[in-house]
Amino acid sequence: MTIVPPPAKVLVTGANGYIAIWVVRLLLEQGYSVRGTVRSAGKGEYLTEYFGKLGFGDKLEIVVVEDITKEGAFDQAVQGVDAIEHTASPFITSLVNLSDFVDPAVRGTVGVLQSAIKHAPNVKRIVITSSCGAVMAPPPQPTIFSETDWNTSSQMDIDKNGVNADPLSKYRVSKTLAEKAAWEFYEKHKGSIGWELVVINPPFVFGPPIQEITGGPESLNTSLKPFYDILVGDGPKTEKLLSTSNSWVDVRDTALSHILAIQKEAAAGERIIVCGGAYLWQEWFDAANTIQPYPLPNHPPAKGMPGITAPYVIQYNTAKADKLLGIRYKTKAETIRDTLEIFAAKGW
């Protein structure tokens, strides 16, 4: 098992994404050089400007990969790097066809592994961003999931309802198929390759966005938009909403797990759930009301229904991540404070 310490060169696919840009930032801050892929030159301009202002301009290289589903899409991008962080995959619930989710997820994932075998002899570790959507679908009763679990029920939704299936089911199926394809590829070639695979599975990802946002709150990424709509927006704070539960992780902890995955020997060959804990939406309102001074003076925090209780329906056993990575997860108060400060800076 070989680790990849700085000043190694790391490829980050989909580098302009919500999680990926934090991966890039943490890599640069720790002394790595980064090559980031984007779908167009225009999407790379923001990254060049953003990281140039932070003093990392000479450590960041941007390359364009227009279509990650094409054969050999990453052949040039992987050349000369020591590790790969593959984050590129859509999480856009407005998509309709299952293929719009599955093709980029599966073909992009397998494609980067194929390119690594053919054109990246120096690569020692490949980290893939999967999702807890590949671990579970919402259960009928409270459940604690672990890395041994796989989502099977979302495929049943697809089989039954086709294009009318829940968009989240389509997303979860795409992540499940992509991750399974990655593990199958790895097991098939493990005896002849020089790199090790690590898969990171986060639940809902919240936290401060530093990626380019070209519009208002409506243009936030899929996981963060409901965070804004519920906590800052004017929608009704019903008991049903406030008692709805799920699990979450801060985007910075998600990014850090990707860095630690190339730095820790024991992470090699592992599927790792990274999760900051479970939540009720009411708990986010409670956390917001502890912030002094509150970052959004024009949108004072709603109280919700303090004291409301409900069982956590979805929880995750994070013992493996605790042992292998040792992350100290951000608290709800830290996450919401830092996120709202970004919203405030944008005048929202």
From TrEMBL:
Pfam families: Epimerase. InterPro entries: Epimerase_deHydtase (IPR001509), NAD(P)-bd_dom_sf (IPR036291), NAD(P)_dehydrat-like (IPR050425). SUPFAM superfamilies: NAD(P)-binding Rossmann-fold domains. This is NAD-dependent epimerase/dehydratase domain-containing protein. Belongs to the NAD(P)-dependent epimerase/dehydratase family. Dihydroflavonol-4-reductase subfamily. It comes from the Eukaryota. Residues 10-275 form the NAD-dependent epimerase/dehydratase domain. Keywords: Oxidoreductase. GO terms for molecular function: oxidoreductase activity, acting on the CH-OH group of donors, NAD or NADP as acceptor. The keyword Disulfide bond does not apply. The keyword Oxidoreductase applies.
